[in-house]
Design goal:
With about 375 residues, the protein is an alpha+beta fold. The chain folds into two domains: about 1-210, no CATH class; about 220-365, Reverse transcriptase/Diguanylate cyclase domain (Alpha-Beta Plaits). It is built from twelve helices and five strands. It has helices spanning about 1-20, 25-55, 65-85, 90-115, 125-135, 140-160, 165-210, 220-230, 250-255, 255-275, 300-320, 340-355; strands at about 235-245, 280-285, 290-295, 325-335, 365. Strand 2 and strand 3 form a beta hairpin.
């Protein structure tokens, strides 16, 4: 049974870890918005409780503990509004710390109200805060467990010193029960959040990936190249390869589209092996590919990569479709100057045209000056 439970939880645990690692920006944005909403909602709800409670409970009046809660909620609201307006991209750690402190402060206030403001009454809001506080934000489950364990321990110590025996029994039962409900509810909500992340990731991957070859499609490749060159082109040497399969239409017309698809897929795999893991490889549709080679330190390495690519295209085509197929390559090099993707692609495209004019099955290199 334990092995079965472990095999069930292991994939979820890996996905959860990936969620907290790769989706930090979205988590921080959502948590910050929830912090703002929860702080504002807390002030409104607290005001309603203070206004309505005297009509519902004879002799009830607000205490300094209730007023202190106003101050705390107000401070968190001010922080959330200020940070949301000042930070273009919320920092994951800063937002998480703020959300954790909010959970701690919220439960601490309810504990102080129950123990010190209303010691003769059974608790009503501590158990509710045990369930509600962890559900507000996307925080690690380990924090939720620690939060509940520490606050329950503190609460039990306080009620045993300040409350009557009957209140102690009631409060102990209600808060322990609330902890179990909280853990189940928090895990369930976390599971939904993680599954939502998985669905979004799958959709984003499909929207960025060429379905046939598995490499980046045109729009994703273009965006990745533009982003990298905007940030790094001035301090590094980069080479943009534009690659076209020679007479690819003839392959489709004589051997069929299935053979053509197999060839394109094989060439894409070859490119991924030839170029570095950090290089950007994409298919621009049809028989045209594009590669941004980062940190292209010398012309010799660029020439070596081009020759290896042409050799491997010959090899893979013979293996996959039984026909020798070649490719033409146009390359532009930009070294230690600010270059845009559009500039590099335009020059590489002209270099590719020159390769075609020279009889195909060759490469042409142009330096962007």
């Amino acid at each position: 049974m334990l092995n079965g439970m472990g095999s069930f939880l292991k994939p979820f645990t890996k996905l959860k870890d990936k969620y907290f690692t790769e989706d930090r920006r979205n988590i921080a944005t959502a948590n910050l918005m929830m912090l703002l909403t929860a702080s504002l909602a807390g002030i409104v709800i607290l005001s309603l409780l203070i206004f309505l409670s005297p009509f519902l409970i004879k002799g009830w009046s607000a205490t300094r503990y209730h007023m202190l809660m106003y101050v705390t909620l107000g401070l968190f609201l001010i922080f959330a509004i200020w940070y949301k307006s000042s930070a273009k991209t919320p920092d994951y750690r800063i937002v998480n710390i703020a959300c954790m402190l909010f959970c701690v402060a919220l439960i601490a206030h309810f504990i102080s109200i129950s123990v010190f403001a209303n010691p003769d009454f059974p608790e009503t809001l501590v158990s509710l805060s045990f369930v509600a506080a962890p559900l507000l934000f996307s925080l690690p489950l380990s924090f939720t467990a620690l939060l509940l364990a520490v606050n329950e321990t503190v609460f039990l110590i306080l009620i045993n010193n300040f409350k009557s025996a009957i209140c102690i029994q009631h409060d102990t039962f209600s808060t322990v029960t609330a902890i179990f409900f909280s853990l189940v509810a928090t895990w369930s909500v976390m599971r939904l959040r993680v599954l939502d992340y998985a669905a979004r990731s799958k959709y984003q991957h499909r929207s960025r990936t060429d379905q046939l070859t598995g490499i980046l499609n045109k729009s994703a490749c273009t965006a990745a190249c533009e982003k990298y060159l905007a940030a790094h082109s001035q301090n590094t040497a980069n080479a943009l390869f534009v690659i076209d399969i020679d007479d690819f239409k003839l392959v489709n017309d004589t051997l069929g589209h299935k053979s053509g698809d197999n060839l394109l897929e094989g060439i894409a795999n070859v490119m991924l092996k030839i170029f570095g893991r950090n290089d950007i490889v994409g298919r621009f549709g049809g028989d045209e590919f594009c590669v941004l080679m980062k940190n292209a330190v010398s012309n010799d390495i660029i020439s070596e990569k081009s020759q290896l690519l042409q050799s491997k295209v010959h090899e893979i085509s013979t293996c996959l479709i039984g026909r020798d197929v070649s490719c033409s390559v146009g390359i532009t090099v930009c070294a230690n100057k600010r270059c845009t993707y559009s500039e590099m692609f335009s020059i590489a495209d002209h270099a590719l045209y020159d390769s075609k004019q020279r009889g195909k099955n060759c490469s042409t290199v142009k330096i962007l000056r």
